[in-house]
Amino acid sequence: MKKSQTFAKQILQFNKTLSLNTLALPAGFKLINPYNGNQKDQVNKITTAFYQKYYNDTKPRRLILGSSPARQGSAVTGVPFEDAKHLQNETGIFIDKFHINKSSSGFLYDVINEYGGCQQFYSDFYMNFVCPLGIAKINANGKEVNCNYYENKKIQAILLPFIIESIRNQINFGIDTSICYCIGSGENYAFLSKLNEQ
């Protein structure tokens, strides 16, 4: 961790590096990058307001990793696991075409409330994804559907260097590496466990 920089500043700088990402996926797949998309200015305002509210300090935190952001959820807003209504209440900023994933956000808020509320939870934990950018797959009907990094071995191989670099960069924010919490007990957990052993 750069002691002179707050956790918030490091997260926002990391997001800025994601905005420069030019990784190309094979035909039938695409990366969803909220940091350089059509709503990047709104995303920048939301992420800045959110992270400065909860991470404007140099305190170490533990890492919680999901797999990949949903294409109409966190992949659009830039704040992992947060739903539209809560983000709008937190920041006063609305993002168009954002669909709430009630099961993910509902579970998160249950955990946060049990822990003592947002201030307490976010002062101890930082949440993101193994693959911090969303992935969409074009299905047989020509529609975009969510795709996790582990669903296609070719996609996973292409993303692997980016995933490793992203995790390393985030650890440098001041992450307590004694433990990492994984959302998902299946393929996401298996992938992270194997990565950790290497």
Automatic annotation (TrEMBL):
Species assigned in the record: Listeria ivanovii
Name of the molecule in the record: DUF4918 family protein
